[in-house]
Amino acid sequence: MKPAPFEYARPESLDEAVRLLAADEDAKVLAGGQSLLPMMNFRLARPSVLVDIGRLPELTGLRREDDVLIIGAGVRQRAAETSQLVRRTCPLVGRALRHVGHRQIRSRGTVGGSLAHADPAAELCAAACALDADVVVTGVGGRRTIAATDLFLSPYETSLATDEILTEVRVPIRGNTRFGFAEITRRSGDFAIAGVAAALEFDDRTATGARLAGLGIGGTVRRLTEAEEALRGRALTAESISAAAQAAADSASPPDDLHADPATRRAALHAAAQRALEQVAHD
């Protein structure tokens, strides 16, 4: 199929991009286009104007400021995946990105675009929640910061206003933290039936903090608080891993759709949680 008719605009600044969005509530931001353009081709999305922000210098760059990793929203996923800075400070980002589609997709798709798209099976969305990341957005009213856990409202819906653009991701860098990421798919590159991103902080061998986020198990990615509670204050052993994986599966109310029934998704979530936490144990 072909998309419905639309106009195209390529602003030269972030301020101009925001003004274009504010002028038309049916305008959409185009970053990498790896999610939006297929939806347009199937006419699931019918924007009146595409506002192309792919070349705005304000949205590029990877840097560290004190104990925060800052990723520009326009950074290509492949660049973040292979970045030595990301690998040193927050390897969970790279581990999650390796599961996003195929390399060609990651070479065009952007970090901010994935978060703003808010796919319930998006690996970066789950990683952002597990990392306690914040996103900075810019609109006609200025800049504001949103916690990643407050960004995702429902499938493909976020708490961004129609005139706001996600401009950067801010990830806290914590010491004594280990990471894991796993997902269950039918084929490599497919959307996940279920997946888990995990970040655990340790004092000696005891998990003093646990943050797990699940993907592919409902209307949005979400924190797996029951599994987190099963891990806090305990050593990461085969028994505590098994208990947390079971708690994650028991807490899920996954959809029944053409990809998997609820029982299959719960089993996949259990397996993904087990694998992610085993990675943490060996990190």
In short:
By secondary structure, the protein is α+β, with helices and mostly antiparallel strands.
Description:
The protein contains twelve helices and 14 strands. Helix 5 (91-97) runs antiparallel to helix 8 (123-130), helix 10 (225-231) packs antiparallel against helix 11 (238-251) and helix 11 packs antiparallel against helix 12. It has helices at 14-23, 36-41, 77-82, 84-89, 91-97, 103-108, 111-117, 123-130, 148-151, 225-231, 238-251, 262-282, and strands at residues 7-9, 28-30, 49-52, 62-65, 68-72, 134-139, 142-147, 152-154, 157-158, 165-172, 177-184, 194-203, 206-215, 222-223. It has 283 residues and is α+β, with helices and mostly antiparallel strands. A hairpin with a 6-residue loop joins strand 13 and strand 14. It has three domains: 7-52, Uridine Diphospho-n-acetylenolpyruvylglucosamine Reductase, domain 2 (2-Layer Sandwich); 57-172, Uridine Diphospho-n-acetylenolpyruvylglucosamine Reductase, domain 3, CATH 3.30.465; 177-282, Enolase-like, domain 1 (2-Layer Sandwich). It is globular, with a radius of gyration of 19 Å.
Strand content: 25-35%
How does the overall form come out from the CA principal axes? Answer: globular
Under the CATH scheme, which architecture of the largest domain would be assigned? 2-Layer Sandwich
Tell me the structural class. Answer: alpha+beta
Major sheet: 5 strands, antiparallel
Helix content: 25-40%
Pattern of helices and strands: EHEHEEEHHHHHHEEHEEEEEEEHHH
CATH class categorisation of the largest domain: Alpha Beta
How many runs of DSSP E, i.e. beta strands?
14
Instruction: Predict the CATH topology of the largest domain.
Output: Uridine Diphospho-n-acetylenolpyruvylglucosamine Reductase, domain 3
